[in-house]
Amino acid sequence: MQYTIHQQDKFKFIEEGEGEPLVLLHGLFGALSNFKDLIEYFRPHYKVVVPMLPLFELDILHTTVGGLAKHVHKFLELKDYKNVHLLGNSLGGHVGLVHVLKHPERIKSLILTGSSGLFENGMGDSYPKRGDYEYIKKKTEVTFYDPKTATEELVNEVFEITRNRLKVIKIIALAKSAIRNNLGEELSNIKQPTLLIWGNNDTITPPFVAREFNRLIPNSELHFIDKCGHAPMMEQSEEFNQILHKFLKKLAEPATVA
């Protein structure tokens, strides 16, 4: 499925469907293909929005989790979205957390999957090795429970990024920023209903990370998906979408008066 990429001011984004905005934040190597099943499932029910995070466009000083969160804030202000369901995978989850802590007013709910912000296993000090296709292939496969999920197309996308020296520098800057920007006890300030969907076999942000998010975020619920790694919305999209839809439907129900 091909989607139209809209441009408004300096922002590029996809917008599909009508209703409350479901805004999707991708990770460090995120591509539109990561969210394909999610977009298709939810666009009959919600306005599904994917802002293209400027991972490689910001100057090096602002190539940080905070710099990306600022970009998301300005985008949501420009579009004047209200009652936003903000979903982030990996680094995108971390950006979503920083945004909600600073600007909670437009956000109705938060959905995190394989999010950084507390702990993540990095790609190793030598990562990314430029020009080493096999190395990049192995590192991409580690993202998933089933290595076959790392299709040739996906590996090629990551490989192309890592061939560019400036992009590699910015990836490392973002990865270091994510490690430095550890949220810890701050998370107890999040008031929004929060859904945590985690792969039981995630080796990058392992299951104990999800449990810690669940403990620290007051109004949160946690679901694990078996045979699933760091990107549940790709690897187990059907189960992921059902868990998410149930959560969003529950939020749409009028509160019962005791």
TrEMBL record:
Alphabetical UniProt keywords: Hydrolase
Cellular component terms (Gene Ontology): membrane
Protein's recorded name: Alpha/beta hydrolase
MF terms in GO: monoacylglycerol lipase activity
PANTHER family: MONOACYLGLYCEROL LIPASE (PTHR43798), MONOACYLGLYCEROL LIPASE ABHD6 (PTHR43798:SF5)
Record InterPro entries: AB_hydrolase_1 (IPR000073), AB_hydrolase_fold (IPR029058), AB_hydrolase_sf (IPR050266)
Domain AB hydrolase-1: 21-136, 184-235
Coiled coil: none
Organism of provenance: Flavisolibacter tropicus
Biological process according to GO: acylglycerol catabolic process
